[in-house]
Amino acid sequence: MLKEYEAALVEKKLLGIGNVLLTFACEDIAKMAEPGQFVNVSCSLFLKRPFGICTVDPIGNTFSIGVKEVGAGTKDILTASVGDVFSILGPLGHGFSFDGVKKIIAVGGGTGIYPLYFALDKAKRKGIPAICVNGFRSWQDAFFLSECEELSEKTIFASDAGDLGVKGTVMDALKLLQPEDLTDATVFVVGPEIMMKKVSAWAHVHQLSCQVSLEKRMACGFGICLVCVCKIKSDADNMPFHHVRCCKEGPVFQASEVIW
Amino acid sequence: MLKEYEAALVEKKLLGIGNVLLTFACEDIAKMAEPGQFVNVSCSLFLKRPFGICTVDPIGNTFSIGVKEVGAGTKDILTASVGDVFSILGPLGHGFSFDGVKKIIAVGGGTGIYPLYFALDKAKRKGIPAICVNGFRSWQDAFFLSECEELSEKTIFASDAGDLGVKGTVMDALKLLQPEDLTDATVFVVGPEIMMKKVSAWAHVHQLSCQVSLEKRMACGFGICLVCVCKIKSDADNMPFHHVRCCKEGPVFQASEVIW
Amino acid sequence: MVDLSVRVGSVDFANPVILASGACGFGRELSEYVDMSTIGGICSKGLTLLPREGNPGCRVAETASGMLNSVGLQNPGLEAFLQNELPFMTGLGTRIIVNVAGHSTNDYQKMVERLGAPGTPVDVLELNLSCPNVTEGCMTIGATADGVYNLVNAVRSLTDKPLWVKLTPNVTSISETAHAAQDAGGDAVVLINTLLGLAIDVKTRRPVLQNNTGGLSGPAIKPVALRMVQECYRLISIPIIGVGGIMNAADVIEFMLAGASAVEIGTASLLHPAACAKIIKDLTAYAEDNCLEALSSLTGELKLW
Amino acid sequence: MVDLSVRVGSVDFANPVILASGACGFGRELSEYVDMSTIGGICSKGLTLLPREGNPGCRVAETASGMLNSVGLQNPGLEAFLQNELPFMTGLGTRIIVNVAGHSTNDYQKMVERLGAPGTPVDVLELNLSCPNVTEGCMTIGATADGVYNLVNAVRSLTDKPLWVKLTPNVTSISETAHAAQDAGGDAVVLINTLLGLAIDVKTRRPVLQNNTGGLSGPAIKPVALRMVQECYRLISIPIIGVGGIMNAADVIEFMLAGASAVEIGTASLLHPAACAKIIKDLTAYAEDNCLEALSSLTGELKLW
Ligand SMILES: Cc1cc2nc3c(=O)[nH]c(=O)nc-3n(C[C@H](O)[C@H](O)[C@H](O)COP(=O)(O)OP(=O)(O)OC[C@H]3O[C@@H](n4cnc5c(N)ncnc54)[C@H](O)[C@@H]3O)c2cc1C
Ligand SMILES: Cc1cc2nc3c(=O)[nH]c(=O)nc-3n(C[C@H](O)[C@H](O)[C@H](O)COP(=O)(O)OP(=O)(O)OC[C@H]3O[C@@H](n4cnc5c(N)ncnc54)[C@H](O)[C@@H]3O)c2cc1C
Ligand SMILES: Cc1cc2nc3c(=O)[nH]c(=O)nc-3n(C[C@H](O)[C@H](O)[C@H](O)COP(=O)(O)O)c2cc1C
Ligand SMILES: Cc1cc2nc3c(=O)[nH]c(=O)nc-3n(C[C@H](O)[C@H](O)[C@H](O)COP(=O)(O)O)c2cc1C
Ligand code: FES
Ligand code: FES
After folding, report:
1. Which helix (H) or strand (E) holds C125?
2. Which residue(s) pair with A233 in the sheet?
3. Residues C1, C246: contact at Cβ < 8 Å?
4. Is the pLDDT of residue B17 over 90?
5. Alpha helices per DSSP H over chain D
6. Does C222 touch chain B (CB under 8 A)?
7. What's the fold here for domain A103-212?
8. How much of chain D exceeds pLDDT 70, in percent?
């Protein structure tokens, strides 16, 4: 049986402006989670809040999420103290598929870097080479720089401000990849929708398989309320699309299936 | 201008089973409060919760309330930690009148002892002699025993269980008072409604002036919503009673005016 | 300096924040916490022709993000109001709205005639057709379009003052009753009064409120109030005053976007006496941050999907 | 051992806790968290004759102690349900209720005929006359007593299975629509579906929900639901299933005291997948602590003032 966990916050680590890594004690999630899966975390507001799983420590029985403050719920979560207990559901959803993946180009923007970090970590452990392309607004907003470099064969950063890596977006950074970087690569993208859409198109042009992690407003997070649906291409006759649950069939989808 | 205070909890002191004295930092309340007045204290539920002011320290700029856990709101307040900040309105309402009071017989039951303690303290400072009659369920539930003894010329305790003072209620304890104890006395009663009603009747029989502190469910606590009314005798022609605000005209009323 | 002023029909307000009926008394208590001349207006406790002691027993029940009240229009009656309260209110330096309740059409007529006479220092009469806590009049009248039409029609000619009609949300179609108010000559509708609700004490197996049911107010009802304001904004042409669960400046803006020309603050004042002042301060900051020349330009600016 | 079982008309339930339509899918996901054979029953997501993809865009808005949803009856349609979902539900070992929605009387008739045929492993049909998120049928039908009467009447003769009629709270008089359901041969009424509400995103100046409005559920609406259950309990004679904001065992008891024979748990399951199991456990403890022989004895035991 699955269950809802009462998990204590065991560590808070400030990563960058408004970005904090929260570590929770929860054996089951630490042991079961796969990259791309998420947890739904209680806060003082009515609904839980979903966050991609960033790291797991199946020995220490902890896992972590990276949280950026964007509203009342994340604010509340970030003001918690070590020792505070949260109701947490997880690991939820379908993460990245590693089936037949020979090389990864991980493209991340903002908080999208958290689940990608977990994917890079798994890739490293499986001996799958990875290239990492991360976009930030500016140097001050950046985090996980050396961590991503450590897990990747090649790392390219981009910043809107131009004070870190390439000036521009991840699209500008992708241009720096060499043809051999693309050979046999699968693209994993997590970030703002507009970025994922563009990277998907880029992957399509280069005939690379591409997986994206969609973010929708959720309620339950485990598939019973149908509020979180994404438009997915349908092969049914009179139906151009299906509404598919982001929390259950996703959040990671094959980019080729997504109707943006 | 009056204002709503953001007051930090500075001390928590366990007094007896489920009874805790909470001290808050708030200069204005510490300086302005009179015995019988109350504060309305925020909790995690929708409405604030009213509590009689128990002690003030106008030098240290703190005041305290005694809280007994009876439901979700008091439970929440009692789980707070030192340093936590509460929204507090106060001092509210009309407290005990000391006009012409020469001697006090303070009759308290349960949490009613908290505001009476404040009254005893003021009486002592004003040089008004006091007799204190407190009822508890049992010895385990008792608190403020030596504190009340210190402030009173005579103290009688009663307990339902009989393991502290007289076995029985405050009504049994009152029987132990000597005729001279009653001379020139004003009775202050705070406790369960049934007790206040009985003590009022006793005071009436002995022709003693009596003040009672009524407890009604409140919302605002400062007189604008009219949900907290008590039935007070009316001298209007075709109107046997008036609905009077417990939080504003009360909580302390002349017992002779109250329609129970 | 941003312009917070709003206009509701012929009456202008320094800002859109009005204290709601029944949640500010006659202003005495709140005036100890807030400089009342800085608020948009104040609406009196619901008045009846004769004094009323209201309902007996427990009159409040806490609910999730809200409360039920069953005060039942306790008020000093028209005469005592005119003598003791109205002069005080007049001194506050803000717009004065008087909430008028009654058992019968005749009651309303008498009160409108008196309060709405040219000389009285009253800016607006708010017809309360929506109090859920009395057995006659009020919500019974406000429950049907005919009831609303007939009542407003019966008092319309008795005064030149603006008549606002406060409607109950406990209806199948709020736009129908709002339309009736408009058709009968109402100058604005006030949406919404409380939702009829019940709270039960499991231990005693009795309703918490001795009146059994009560009116639900507070943030719990905000989504319903916003929906009704929006619905009426699309379907009627007189101004709307939005009420229901407003706790902060963002809530006020939501109501204005939905179509409210002004708003009333009820339960928020019970929780925080200076809520209205804080809201006005935050509205100013909002208007500045968003380079709004006039806050009133927000009214109805919601873009539906 | 206390007896938690309840009877609603001819159907008995192991306990009064039923999973509400739209907040449990077809039981698959919750069955990973809860032993479904321990709960009173499960009500399917609202079904329509043909598959529906539901409403586009954002479908959820958080509110104070509640949420708005605008799912709009996304469901696989009758045939796919019968083929893929009903067999799974049958295997859960609990009572099965199917929530039936439609655009027209004809839709309802076809579905009732098919689902209500003697052989189908369905215990109860719940007629959804109350979904606020579709433009035709449902709430439009449920908004008037005539609409309810005609619809229930049109399907009554098509099945021998119990028909529960799920009503909308967005009406002036819930007892009138409940009465209509009773008069037309409904076996029970289910009170309440969601309140119609609106949430606004101040930044974008658009409704949060792409359907503009949505249905309000959760503790915010509990006082309204309790009031409607109580009102109908006094005025109709068929059983009532109480729904709306139930989060814990105390809430269930409140609904039963108000007159509910059983209850449905909606939003609580979204927040806590095992909410129903916890509630049943706590109900057992409550019954034991209060020396109740049968939990069902609570129904209607509220003593009004
Ligand atoms: C599968 C998934 C994984 C996520 N992973 C992370 C993560 O690793 N780190 C992280 O910081 N955030 C992540 N998010 C986003 C995070 O859930 C939202 O930022 C959070 O719910 C906002 O809550 P709030 O109360 O602070 O903001 P609100 O006040 O609710 O909203 C503030 C803003 O955030 C947007 N928003 C709110 N909820 C969501 C949501 N569920 N999805 C997308 N946008 C939303 C709103 O439209 C609004 O503009 C993830 C979301 C999903 C669905
Ligand atoms: C003027 C005044 C002074 C008070 N002084 C003290 C004090 O010094 N110390 C103290 O511990 N308590 C005091 N109380 C009572 C205290 O306010 C309640 O115990 C508290 O509000 C209960 O909140 P709750 O959420 O824990 O209980 P709830 O869950 O709200 O209720 C639990 C039980 O308490 C009763 N109750 C709830 N609110 C009130 C209320 N306002 N008045 C009376 N009964 C209520 C309910 O009927 C119920 O039976 C005072 C009340 C008033 C009105
Ligand atoms: C304690 C209380 C008393 C009220 N009395 C009245 C009244 O006398 N007349 C009236 O029209 N509305 C009355 N109301 C309704 C409010 O004016 C307002 O319409 C309602 O509470 C919703 O707004 P809110 O959520 O901001 O409180 C009362 C509300 C409360 C809470
Ligand atoms: C996401 C969601 C979807 C719903 N879908 C349906 C539905 O398909 N059919 C129906 O009759 N009610 C539906 N409802 C209403 C619930 O069954 C229930 O009546 C309502 O939510 C109130 O109960 P609650 O407060 O316990 O959630 C839905 C509710 C929610 C929250
Ligand atoms: S959030 Fe409930 S189904 Fe996805
Ligand atoms: S609690 Fe509001 S008037 Fe007394």
Report:
1. strand C124-128
2. A241
3. no
4. no
5. 77-80, 86-90, 105-115, 139-142, 145-156, 174-183, 222-235, 249-258, 267-271, 275-289
6. no
7. Rossmann fold (3.40.50)
8. 100
Which residues span the domain enclosing C140? 6-55+72-195+217-298
Does D67 reside within a domain? Answer: no
CA distance A248 to chain D (A): 9
Which residues touch D305 (CB under 8 Å, ≥6 apart)?
C57, C206, C207, C209, C210, C211, C212
* A110-139 confidence digits (pLDDT tens): 999 999 999 999 999 999 999 999 999 998
Domain CATH number, residue D272 = 3.20.20.70
Q: What is the pLDDT of residue D123?
A: 98
Selecting among D131, D138, D232, D276, the annotated active-site residue is D131
How far is residue C287 CA from its own chain's centroid? 24
Q: Output the pLDDT for position C139.
A: 78
Q: Alpha-carbon torsion B45, B47, B52, B55, what sign?
A: positive
The domain over range A4-92 is classified in CATH as 2.40.30.10: yes
Tell me which DSSP letter residue D92 carries.
Answer: T
Mutate to test the pocket of ligand 1, among D62, D200, D205 (most ligand atoms within 8 A of CB): D62
In chain B, list all ranges with CATH 3.40.50.80.
103-212
Give pTM, 2 decimals: 0.96
Half-sphere exposure of B125 (CA within 13 A, CB side): 10
Other C-beta atoms lying within 10 Å of the C-beta of residue B230: 23
Alpha carbons within 13 angstroms on the beta-carbon side of residue A247 total: 25
| Contact between A163 and A136 (Cβ < 8 Å) | no
Name the stretches of chain C with pLDDT < 70: none
pLDDT at D134: 78
**pLDDT digits over D48-107, tens only?**
999 999 999 999 999 999 999 999 999 999 999 999 999 999 999 999 999 999 989 999
Strand partners, A157: A134
Mutation test of the interface with chain B: which of C62, C79, C211, C264, choosing the one with the most B Cβ atoms within 10 A?
C62
In chain D, how many domains are there? 1
Question: What is the total residue count of chain B?
Answer: 260
List the beta bridge partners of residue C3: C294
Nearest ligand atom owner, CA of C267: 3
Q: What is the ipTM of this complex?
A: 0.96
Which amino acid belongs to residue D246?
Answer: I
User: Is residue C210, in this structure, part of any structural domain at all?
Assistant: no
Distances (CA, A) of A246 to A50, A52, A194, D73: 11, 13, 17, 17
Which amino acid makes up residue C301?
E
**Domain assignment of residue D200, yes or no:** no
CA distances D290 to C202, D2, D16, D285, D293, Å, are: 11, 10, 17, 8, 9
Contact D6, D13 (CB under 8 A): yes
**B235 reaches C (C-beta below 8 A):** no
Question: C-D interface: how many C-beta pairs under 8 angstroms?
Answer: 141
Q: In this complex, do D218 and A242 lie within 8 Å of one another by their Cβ atoms?
A: no
Q: What does pLDDT average to over chain A?
A: 95
Phi, psi for B22 (deg, rounded to 5): -110, 125
Identity of the amino acid at A29 = I
Per-residue pLDDT reduced to its tens digit, B199-254: 999 999 999 999 999 999 999 999 999 999 999 998 877 778 999 999 999 999 99
Region B155-181 average pLDDT: 92
Interchain pair A46, D67: CB under 8 A:
yes
Pocket test for ligand 5, best of A232, A247, A249, A253 (most atoms within 8 A of CB): A247
| Residues in C touching B243 (Cβ below 8 Å) | 53-54, 74
Cβ(B251) to ligand 6 under 6 A?
no
Structure tokens at B203: 């005071």
Residue D207 inside a domain? The answer is no
Helix or strand run (H / E) with residue A121:
helix A113-126
Which of the following CATH numbers is that of domain A214-260: 3.40.50.1380, 2.60.40.10, 2.10.240.10, 3.30.200.20? 2.10.240.10
